[in-house]
Write a structure and sequence with these properties.
This protein is of the alpha/beta class. Strands 1-9-8-5-4-2-3 form a seven-stranded mixed sheet, sandwiched between helices. Strand 2, helix 4 and strand 3 form a beta-alpha-beta unit.
């Protein structure tokens, strides 16, 4: 059976973790610092801090923003469920917003409405690695309240910037996902595009925000910081990101070609640099259970793409206000897509995608 998810751990990652264990320095220390330096170089942000969980990273972002308890925080219905749970545990009020069915992202109009109704912060989860075009990102920032980007699935994606003076033969300059908000959360959990087996990095794209955040990071107890044994894995994963993403993109394009002849739909995304191919979601035109049974007969496991999201956690409570997110929850499947898939396995999955019931 080809499993839906698999973390790609190669010899380099194993050696880094083993070295950390042999040195008996597994708590937060040198490798944590090396990881945050590598993050700064990769994303061109002004500074970052690595924490033990995305929830802790979010706590420090809200501390740096000086958001008062009981404030409303706007989140996507397709954001990971931990966002809702963390906000409630920190005594904030999550405002859950519906998404566009074609790409799983919350429209700017919905963010604006939430801000008008008292939301103090937006947590912008880039669903399934999809990042909107520059004009939409600019409109999002123009809503007028702080934006915290969540690039756990979209790390490495970028947005084409407008070219001054009209058309040009030169490629448009690009800005990486994670550099638009005041702060950015990069989850390092098992199914995130870069993993440490758990944890998260909180980035400050700008110097002014980093000065504020650094004060809180410097005072953080060691129990909040990412241990070196996890940082070792994430450090190598980040160094290997381009190699892994190249493999994922090749497989994604193979699957995409197969789906063009079927009746099931893909989420709308930029197939070049504007999205990270962290997974392969397919919006089904038939019942999920029928497709799952068909794939299982071919020894391929599929899972609901949006299990473990806010809408999954609160489906009864949100079924009327988040109709499109609920529809995507029920109809969207994840097919296996990870770098260590063999050519024969990816070809087999591609063939199944072209013949789904």
């Amino acid at each position: 059976m080809i499993q839906t998810y698999s973390t790609t751990i190669r010899r380099k990652e194993m050696d880094a973790v083993l070295t950390c264990m042999v040195d008996e320095k597994i708590g937060p220390g040198e490798l944590n610092a090396r990881l945050t330096a590598q993050i700064k170089e990769f994303f061109k942000c002004d500074g970052s801090c690595a924490f033990r969980s995305p929830s802790i990273a979010l706590k420090y972002a809200l501390l740096a923003l000086d958001i008062a308890p009981e404030s409303k925080i706007a989140i996507s219905a397709l954001a990971p469920a931990w966002q809702y749970q963390a906000l409630v545990s920190m005594n904030f009020v999550p405002v859950v917003l519906d998404v566009r069915e074609e790409n799983g992202l919350v429209p700017v109009e919905a963010w604006q409405k939430a801000a008008n109704e008292g939301a103090k912060v937006i947590i912008y989860h880039e669903t399934e690695g999809i990042v909107p075009e520059y004009a939409e990102m600019e409109a999002l920032l123009a809503v007028g309240i702080p934006v915290i980007e969540d690039i756990s699935m979209s790390a490495g994606a970028s947005v084409a910037l407008p070219v001054e003076g009209g058309a040009s033969d030169a490629p448009a300059p690009r800005k990486k996902a994670g550099l638009f908000g005041v702060f950015t959360i990069l989850g390092l959990e098992e199914r995130d595009v870069i993993t440490a087996g758990g944890g998260a990095v909180l980035m400050a794209p700008g110097r002014r925000e980093w000065i504020v955040l650094k004060k809180f990071c410097d005072e953080a107890p060691l129990t909040d910081l990412l241990p070196d044994i996890n940082a070792a894995l994430a450090w190598v994963q980040l160094k290997e990101f381009n190699r892994n993403e190249s493999s994922r993109k090749e497989i994604f394009n193979l699957y995409h070609h197969s789906c063009l002849i079927g009746r099931h739909k893909m989420l709308v995304r930029d197939l070049d640099e504007g999205a990270t191919m962290s997974c392969f979601p397919l919006v089904l035109a038939s019942a999920f259970k029928d497709v799952k049974q068909y794939a299982a007969k071919k020894d391929i496991e599929i899972r609901q793409a949006f299990e473990g999201t806010v809408i999954d956690l609160k489906v009864e409570e949100l079924s009327e206000s988040c109709i499109k997110a609920k529809s995507l929850l029920l109809r969207t499947a994840h097919f296996p897509l990870y770098p260590r898939l063999s050519h024969s396995e990816s070809a087999k999955i591609s063939k199944v995608l072209g013949t789904l019931p």
